[in-house]
Amino acid sequence: MDEKTLTRFKKALLEEKQRILNNSENTLKNDLVLSTDDLADETDLTVSELTQNLMFKLRDRERQLLNKIDQALGKMDEGTFGMCEDCEESIEPRRLEARPVSTLCIACKELQEHKEKIYA
Ligand SMILES: [Zn+2]
Q: Scanning 25, 47, 101, 119, which has the fewest C-beta atoms within 10 Å of its C-beta?
């Protein structure tokens, strides 16, 4: 994968990450409003505690996506981004365009889904 394409994917991933974090920041702000009403006497509630709270409240899907984005960014540093984790072939560019966090090529992904159906 050439440098230019890699940079483009990296930008897309960072933007997606920022979007999720912005969303959670809004959730946090709403939370703060609620907390001051609910816990008027509770003055020692630190921001980090609230943030921790928020992380639990973050919807699973978003948390998983954040993990996947971080993994993908880590792979970029390692130079393995865009490589299938199973067969180590290059993941189809079209697949990465649609979903930069993909870790399997289409063939391996289909195989995995097929297995999941059998063992589910
Ligand atoms: Zn594969």
A: 119
